[in-house]
Amino acid sequence: MKMMKAIKFRTQEVQATLEGLKTATRIPIKCDLYDSTEETAGDFQLCDSLNQFFFKDENHFKSWALRKSRYKKGDILYVRETWSFLSAIECGSICLNECKDTYKQEYGCYVYRTNYGKTEDDSFPPSLFKWKPSIHMPKEAARIFLKVTDVRAERLQDITNDGAIKEGFKGVECSCKGMAYACTDCYNTGWQEPPMVGFMYTWDAIYKNWSENPWVWVIEFEKIDKPESDGE
Length: 232
Hints:
This protein has helices at 11-18, 58-68, 88-91, 161-166, 195-207; strands at residues 5-8, 24-28, 44-45, 54-55, 76-80, 83-87, 101-103, 106-112, 145-155, 172-173, 191-193, 215-224. The protein folds into 2 domains: 5-79 and 144-170 and 196-224, Roll (Archaeosine Trna-guanine Transglycosylase, Chain: A, domain 4), CATH 2.30.130.30; 83-132, no CATH class. The strands form 4 sheets. The chain has a 5-stranded mixed β-sheet with strand order 1-5-9-12-2, covered by helices on one side. The chain starts with a strand and ends in an 8-residue tail after the last strand. The protein is an alpha+beta fold. Strand 3 (44-45) and strand 4 form a beta hairpin.
């Protein structure tokens, strides 16, 4: 079995994955992945910046992007999320799980930000948990495991409502959806607020480049049980 790879999810993404709503994620394709040995010629431009890389056409670029993608079809991933660790004394009265985990040679239990509601400053409860960023989460703390089912490159704005639903966005259905008469209040789309609108606002809040319509990797996956071996 190949070694598992890590992928970082924000709290909202973790919640959607746990609920079975999120089965895909989009990752920006960065210009600095360019390989100077790559044969590039033509008018197809990857990046609107000083680092402009040209390819013969979109298919040439997509083939390059698949080779450069960190994640491949069939890969097993473990999700890194905002977390903390409580000592055995602390977790004995708080955690539902046994205090059998070890972190820095101390027994206790891992806890996860997603399980503790929402606060504006992400510090709930402030007197007890000191949340650690996902980038520092050890693999031993992982509780969510994914199997990659598809990888492709596409423009960000090519996302559809179905794609946004796979990203974990529910949208707001039109109140007259499914009725016999035309649903003019929702422009006959069936949506009062399409799922892709929520995705658009969330993406722009993070990356601030929706209007630029960048290229992204689309990683589709299915949630699986923890593998018996991680290939190490």
